[in-house]
Amino acid sequence: MSAVHVFFVLFSQHPLAAWVIFIASYVVFALGRFPGTHIDRPAAAVIGAAAMFAFRVLGAEQGLHSIDYATIVLLFAMMVVVAGLHLAGFFEWITDMFIAHVRPSLLLPVVIFTSGILSAFLVNDIVCLLLAPLVVQVSLQLSRRATPYLLALATASNIGSVATITGNPQNILIGSVSRISYLDFLFHLGPVAIVGLFVDWGILHLLYFRSRPQNHPVSLAAPRFTRSESHLVFPVFVGLAVLAGFLAGLPPALVAAVGAAVLLMHPRYPSKRVYDEVDWSLLVFFIGLFLIVGGAQQSGIAKEMLSFAEDVNLHNRWIFSGVVVLLSNIVSNVPAVMLLKDLLPNLADPHHTWLLLAMSSTLAGNLTITGSVANIIVVEKAREQSPVSFTEYLRAGIPVTVVTVIIGVIWLSYV
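Predicted structure:
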C-alpha cells in the first residue's frame, strides 16, 4: 500500500481533512492567489471542491444537494442578457449620449448615476468590465486625469448594485437562498442605493474637485456611434421584459433563463459570440464554493461557526455589519456571504438579517481595491492609461464605505 493511499485512508471522512481544505481554500480567497503558483480564486474553489470529494467529506448525492442551481442559472442568464446588450453596442451608445448631451463639468455625477443605475439591474462586475474602457476614453477626450471617474465607476457600481437581487453575484445568491422577492428587496435596499450614490458624488467631489478649477472644454468630440440604433431594439426589449418579469414577482432564475433563451434565438447573436462574453471563471468559482461550504456543513464546521457567532453576538446589527465588512475585505464578499449564509436562519429575524447581509457585503466592497471583483476589473482595465494605487483608492474607499454602511444600518433599523 503506497504512502499516498495510506494518507487518504487515514484522513478520509476525518473532520481534520475538512478543516484543512476549508481553511486552505479561504486563505487563497483572501490572498487572491496561492503564493508562488498560478492558483487563483476560481482554481482554489475547484481544487477545494475536488478535495472534499477525494477525502469523502462529501458524497456525490450530498454534493449535488449542496449546489444552489437557481443561483447559477440566474447568474449565467444575466450574463447572456448583458452580452446581447454589449454585442449590440448598448454601452457604446450610452457613452455617445454622454458625449452628445452632457456638459463636461457634470461628467462625475453622470458616471456615478449611470453606472449605479445600470448596476442595480445588471450584474455590476459586467457593467464595470464594459464601462471602464469607455470612461477612460471620455476622460482622455476631456484631457483630464481618469482616476476620479474610475473611482466613481467602481464605487457607484457597488453602491447601485445593492438595490436589487440581480445587482451583483452575492445578491443573486442571497435572493435565491432567502426567497426574498425582487420587489421586497428593491423596496428595502433601493433607498440605500439612491442615498449612497449622492454620498459617493459628494465625497469624490470634495476629494478631487472642490478646490481645483475645472477647465473643461465647452463640449466633447462628436459622437462616433457607427452602428444602426435599430440594433439596440431587440436586446433592450429582452432586457426590459426580463426586468418586468422580476418586478411582477416571477421566479428570477426562470425569467432570466427565458430572456437568455429568446436572445439566443436571434440570428444576430450566435451562441459562440455570446458565450465568449460569459465569465465562466465566476460560474466555476460559485460551484466550487457551494461544494466547499457543503463539505463544511457535512463535517460539522458550520455548527462550530454558529457557536462562534453566538459568542460574538451577531444578533446585534452593528456588530453583524462590522463583521461582514471585515470578512468581505479579507476573503472577498462572495466567499464571505457563502460562509455566513447557513448561520442566518438561526438568527432572530432572518428576513432582516438577509437584507443586512446583502447591504453590508456589497457596500463593504468599496473599502479597498480587493474588496470586490468590480473594483479589480476597473483598476486592471485602466492600468496602462490611468493606474490607481491602493492608497489612493483608500482615500475614497474608507469614507464612502463607512458613511454608506452607517446609512444602510440605520435605514434597515426602521423599515
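Summary: The CA atoms of residues 67 and 290 lie 5 Å apart.
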